[in-house]
Amino acid sequence: MQERIKILGVEIDNITSDEAGEITKQLIETSNKSCSLVVAPNVEFIMAAQKDEEFFNILKTSKLATPDSVGVIIGGKLQKKPFKERIPGQTYFRKVFEVGEKEGWTFYLLGGSGDIPRRAKEHLESIYLKAKIVGYHEGYFKEDSEEKVIEEINNLQPNVLFVAMGAPRQEKWIYENKDKLKVDIAAGQGGTFDYEAGNIKRAPVWMQKCGIEWLWRLIREPKRIKRMAVLPLYLLTILFTKDITKGKFDK
Ligand code: UDP
Question: Is residue 60 part of a domain?
């Protein structure tokens, strides 16, 4: 089992992206359609989990939790447990396609508005020529059509279900439907389909390397300021809290 580092009660795996690909492979090989949850905690996740006990508990059920943001990396450093690597959501997503193309896995994309998942599928198929994306569906649907979406997924029984409906909606959706979904793993992917569809451009590589991708997103989508306002509070909390590993809802 991989080492898990706790930040305010949220458990995150200390792994490289190659190891994340390897663990995903093991999960798929042993899951037997049990819908293992994969999450990508960032600062917004950690802070939301201090207010939302349901989200906090759902994150605890994850079989793989990749370190998504610079704030998470800082949280590891403060504990003198440095994370081996930061794994942005899209990096994990692409890694799963890279491994899955070789292994013959099937994929389903759920999330994004309008034709975003279709365009993401087409773009991915132009990169991963042998990838089997067996279906897709947009992420805005009413509760009464939810059963239909699940039925479609279950008819296809993909190995990997990527759910890109933003956090915590996507994690809650997966958790609520876990016992119905016939998939090996289900991973929350935030805005990744938007990137893959070319709807949103990722930060230049130098910004990604400096860990300031968040600044790029903020400049391009100023309305994110409200969401990002948790960052200073997070830093203050982890700097001054007595035990950085403990979360508000830890028993
Ligand atoms: N979304 C969705 N259904 C919803 C709410 C959101 O499919 O009910 C999609 C939205 O279109 C966008 C993604 O979820 O593609 C959320 O992206 P966001 O940038 O919030 O995620 P982040 O990368 O910040 O986690």
Answer: yes
